[in-house]
Specification:
The chain is an alpha+beta fold. The protein contains three helices and seven strands; from the N terminus they run E-H-H-E-H-E-E-E-E-E. Strands 3-4-5-6-7 form a five-stranded antiparallel sheet, covered by helices on one side. It is elongated. The N terminus is likely disordered.
Length: about 140
């Protein structure tokens, strides 16, 4: 297992290059202890053959139709259209699933997606109420 700072985890999720600065942070992470680190098991790239399925265009269409627009936060966190499902209070133990289409405006000002991320999180507030145990899975996909 390797240990990463919370900022590094945000950068990895946003597709930013390692070592880049984060101009903003997710609201939930702002309340966490500075200098905290997260253990992430080492992963190995495994080639996978994926066939195009009818369902993927429907997922992209749902993000375009129903996604909430977020303007981004500087050059490191681009604009996105996103759907979320949060179960439980954000300031207490909860689970959440997010799907975001990241991209930006084209020459006509219409939003154009570049990639999609799907995140599943489980936040557990430990006894004493000061330490969080967070499990997070991030999947980054192309638009194809």
């Amino acid at each position: 297992m390797k240990r990463f700072s919370l900022a590094a985890v945000i950068l990895l999720a946003a597709g930013a290059p390692a070592g880049a600065e984060v101009p903003g942070a997710l609201p939930l992470l702002r309340s966490m202890t500075p200098g905290a680190s997260v253990a992430i098991p080492e992963a190995r790239a495994v080639p996978v053959a994926v066939r195009q399925r009818q369902g993927w265009p429907a997922v992209l269409d749902s993000l375009r139709r129903y996604g909430e627009f977020q303007p981004g936060d500087g050059p490191m966190i681009p604009p996105s259209l996103g759907l979320r499902d949060v179960r439980g209070p954000l300031d207490g133990s909860h689970s959440a699933d997010y799907a975001n289409m990241w991209g930006g405006p084209d020459e006509d000002g219409s939003f154009v997606g570049a990639w999609v991320s799907m995140v599943s999180e489980d936040w557990r507030l430990q006894p004493g109420g000061r330490v969080w145990r967070i499990e997070q899975w991030v999947l980054t996909l192309t638009m194809e």
